[in-house]
Amino acid sequence: MDTGEQRLRQAIGKTIRARRLMKNLTIERLADRSNVDDKYLSELERGKKNITLKTLFKLAAGLDLDNPSELLDDAKREAYPHMRNERN
């Protein structure tokens, strides 16, 4: 069964992987730059683990992003493509 939580977890993983590949980084290199375990990062990218806020911030820094919300915004678009990007 595909729940919203699973869909979002997979989208976040896919987003992290895409950003990592855009930077030409291996999992090991991004893990090192972010001070995150490489096996945990691999599981995140495959949508097998939930990400914590602390890890989100670490990975954003390791990817040289100005704001961790960039990862969340990309994941939201991936998980919910039918939603418009609006603010209430």
Quote the CATH topology.
Answer: 434 Repressor (Amino-terminal Domain)
CATH C-level class is Mainly Alpha
Q: Which ranges are low-confidence, i.e. pLDDT below 50, for 5 or more consecutive residues?
A: none
Strand/helix succession: HHHHH
Rg (CA only): 13 Å
CATH architecture: Orthogonal Bundle
Overall pLDDT, averaged?
91
List the helices and strands and how they pair.
Elements: H1 4-22, H2 27-34, H3 38-45, H4 53-62, H5 69-79
Helix pairs in contact: 1-5, 2-4
What keyword list fits this structure?
64% helix, mainly alpha, globular, DNA binding, Cro/C1-type_HTH, 434 Repressor (Amino-terminal Domain), 88 residues
Describe the structure.
The protein has a single domain, classed as 434 Repressor (Amino-terminal Domain) (Orthogonal Bundle). The chain has helices at about 5-20, 25-35, 40-45, 55-60, 70-80. The protein is globular and about 35 Å long. By secondary structure, the chain is an all-alpha fold. The chain is built from five helices and no strands. Helices cover about 65% and strands about 0% of the residues.
